[in-house]
Amino acid sequence: MSAGASGRGRSRRTGATLARRLAAAAALAGVLAGAVAWLNLRGDAHFAQADSTVAPTPALVARGAYLARVGNCAGCHTAPGGAAYAGGRGIDTPFGTVYAGNLTPDNATGLGAWTAGDFWRALHNGRSRDGRLLYPAFPYPDLTQTTREDSDALFAYLRTLPAVAQPARPHALRWPFDSTVALALWRALYFRPGVFEPDPARSAQWNRGAYLVRGLGHCAACHAPRNALGATRDAQALGGGAIPMQGWVAPSLSDDAEAGVRHWAPEDVAALLRTGVSPRGTALGPMAQVVMRSTQHLDDADLRAMVAYLQSLPADTAARAAAPAPDPASMARGRRLYDDHCADCHGTQGQGAAGAYPALAGNRSVTMASPANVVRVIVEGGFAPATAGHPRPYGMPPFGQSLQRDEIADVATYVRNAWGTQAGAVRELDVIDVR
Amino acid sequence: MRVAARHLALGLLLAASLRPGLAAPPPHRVPDTLAQRVQACTPCHGAQGVATRDGYFPRIAGKPDGYLYRQLLNFRDGRRQNPAMARLVENLTDAYLQEIAAHFAALDLPHEPPPMRAAPAAESARGAQIVRQGDAARRLPACAACHGAAMTGVAPDVPGLLGLPRDYLIAQLGAWRTGLRRAHAPDCMADIARRLPEPDIAAVATYLSQQPMPRDPRPAKALPEPMPLACGVAAR
């Protein structure tokens, strides 16, 4: 009896404890949810009333067209062969595929019903007109720095496009990344709406370059490392990183052994961004697209500003691990392959041919720590972009069709370690990773 | 002392030969020609634009320039699916692609036949029948009605069908059937491929790949009769 009574008492006590704990957990969850919601919503209140009354003058529209190129909006929002800015292109991410939206002024499927304020909220705060959170494949963590004036110009330009009825394709994301809760948590952790704050100690030109690089240019979307949840880390340092799902590595823009340009002649940096080729290297892969669609269209002042800013990035002085010395037999095989397949264009000593083929000796795309890019170029080949300043580029064949994996590893090893550089061996496994 | 100096000199010489920049290699020059620029195409399509050994890559030399140009656009703009081709042409302009197409169209046709495979006589005969007469029951016009009596194509838009590997021909007809390969509407080849049963696709490909190049391998300038069906051609 007493045991039973005492048992009931214990269970009553346990029940009370459980209830208290549940209540505490619920309260904690409520506070967290409130915090996440607040982190997602702050700064949103003024969007409703702060709508633009700026008239879409031809000058504003032209400015918007220019800025759309600076931001390479078409890179994602125009599908290959599709109508301009009508969306539909899939952006592969480690979490699934995100489909770019329709930016044309179609009422039902595009931005037809949007106001300039709605558009700014998307750009600045990553929220759609209906309040939906947007996935950060749309690089609003960078675009948030865009000024309201530039946002209005972009919007004015987009309003002038032919309306295209093309419904947004639903994203194909894996659970739990497809849930609003996951996205809200991600934003609470990694996204802060921001405005570009000029550095008064720097020149107007430097500040303009910083604004373009950090904001609309969204260079950090590729040139900054990402964490396991896909958030860029230390975006302003532009320390480079693997481009998700593309198999390319965006080199560090602050490392002299990668793509840091502190010691380049400014005109060489400008030439690379404007024409796709320079005496120091050639843009291939994803950067070729950036030059083709975006940076070749920069006006002189903006181009110079971007160059000045990139040249001012603090040097990354992290020590690199010494590269393992290559196997002499692999070097010998690589040299034979080089002489047979590469020397006609790149020269017997990797010196390149001015105006046509880049030098490989001392070329940092070849010698950077990761061999991914040089292997990918050997496998896939490619053309430099056909820009207005360099309209008839020379092409490189895709050797993935004709060379075996071990041969590609040998020739990559050779070009990384011949001619006075010691960039380390490339293994067959590195080639398999790329193919 | 003198020995030491000699060793030092030798050492410096060795160091100089190992350091880049100290002894700059002689400048390397390449021809400023389109042929040099399109070296990117030759490992697969051959230096002269011929089909290559592995039996898949098509010849491109001597095909009509309008046809080649549109195929380059199709790869770039996603109407034909070949990732290797799409990557190569992704950042090239219409004007440059037109120039590249004209370059290969102007090349003399090679006379080396593509790899052939022995086939049952009945298969070749069925192929010949479709190519020459078509199949009225399936509303299939003869291939020759559009691609020319000599099957060498018609300038500027209709490609020749000879000198192509059998596997390539089968893959193209198959891709048209499934919608992987497309052309501008009306997509006449898609309609035709959908009316061709699989054995007939194989038969047509076998027969075509067995035909030698005629003495004059150039595309015809015009067809004797209007084409039996409408085919879309994008504005050039």
Model description:
The complex is a heterodimer of chains A (435) and B (236). Helices cover 45% and strands 5% of the residues of chain A. With 435 residues, chain A is mainly α. Chain A folds into three domains: 50-190; 204-312, Cytochrome Bc1 Complex, Chain D, domain 2 (Orthogonal Bundle); 328-434, Cytochrome c-like domain (Cytochrome Bc1 Complex, Chain D, domain 2, Orthogonal Bundle), CATH 1.10.760.10. In chain A, β4 and β5 form a beta hairpin. Chain A is globular and about 80 Å long. The termini of chain A are far apart. With 236 residues, chain B is mainly alpha-helical. Chain B has one domain (34-210): Cytochrome Bc1 Complex, Chain D, domain 2. Chain B is built from eleven helices and no strands. Chain B has helices spanning 2-18, 34-37, 42-45, 65-77, 83-89, 94-105, 121-133, 144-147, 166-178, 188-195, 198-210. Chain B is globular, with a radius of gyration of 25 Å. Chain B starts with a helix and ends in a 26-residue tail after the last helix. The A-B interface holds A 79-82, 276, 288-289, 291-292, 344-354, 356-357, 361-362, 380-386, 391-402, 419-421 and B 18-21, 24-30, 32, 34, 36-44, 76-79, 84, 86-93, 95-96, 99.
Sheet of most strands of chain A = 3 strands, antiparallel
Radius of gyration of chain B: 25 Å
How much helicity do the residues of chain A have? 40-55%
Task: List the chains of the largest interface with their residue counts.
Answer: A-B, 46 and 38 residues
> Termini separation of chain A (Å)?
75 Å
- Give the oligomeric state: heterodimer
The helix/strand class of chain B is mainly alpha
The CATH topology label of chain B is: Cytochrome Bc1 Complex, Chain D, domain 2
Chain-averaged pLDDT of chain B: 85
**Number of separate helices of chain A:** 19
Order of helices and strands of chain A: HHHHEEHHHEHHHEEHEEHHHHHHEEHH
What's the order of the H and E elements of chain B?
Answer: HHHHHHHHHHH
Residue ranges of chain B: pLDDT <50 for 5 or more in a row?
10-22
Going by CATH, the architecture of chain B would be Orthogonal Bundle
The share of residues in extended strands of chain B comes to under 5%
CATH class of chain B: Mainly Alpha
Structural class of chain A: mainly alpha
